[in-house]
Design goal:
The structure is a single chain. This protein has 208 residues and is mainly β. It has a single domain, classed as Porin. The protein is built from 1 helix and 12 strands. The strands form 2 sheets. It has an 8-stranded antiparallel barrel with strand order 1-4-5-8-9-10-11-12. A 3-stranded antiparallel sheet has the order 2-6-7, with no helix packed on it. β10 and β11 form a beta hairpin. The radius of gyration is 20 Å and the shape is elongated. The relative contact order is 0.20.
Amino acid sequence: MLVSKPLFLRCSRLGWIVLALVFSTQIHASDYTGYVGLSLGSTEVNFKNVQTAAGATLDGEDSAFKIFGGVNLHENFALEGSYIDFGEAVLTMPFGSVLTVNGVSVVSIGATGVAKSTADALALAGVVKGDVGIAEFFFKGGMHRWESEFTSNFSNVANSSTDGFDLFFGLGTNIEVSDAFAIRLEFENYTLEDDDIDVMTLGGIYRF
């Protein structure tokens, strides 16, 4: 995926956030526990003001990658930070196809054009949770700072990037494998200006 900053810089920034949360929590109570995890899955962009016709296609489905970590401030509440790569959406417009954005239509009159939009985000959320047997169910909500890049081979359209702050929420379950390890299944929805992205992921958690 194309992003405006290297992944290792984003991971480093997230790591400092999580470490700060863990250390600040341990000052107040040594029995608070932390966790880190990695998840993989799929994304689907819900375009609200975009329509295609006459052969144009808009593929908003791709793979997702996420790393996350948090601290348990209470047995039923945690604070969690994450980095997520949403993948890319691809627009393909052969000759004569039509794209409509916010009510304005454009007709392709040249060779097949391809445009790609990629996005990623840093997020922080409050997590409410509860145990039922070996399963821990949770709901979370918070803010994320996202960045998106647009590239194309259209001669009259410039490549560009944009960013912003928006809300997101998620829900899921952690299935205990041992005291230290769990499997996480999760659904999340991220708002990016006028559109939103659904994310389904499966991953693992290590508790410490």
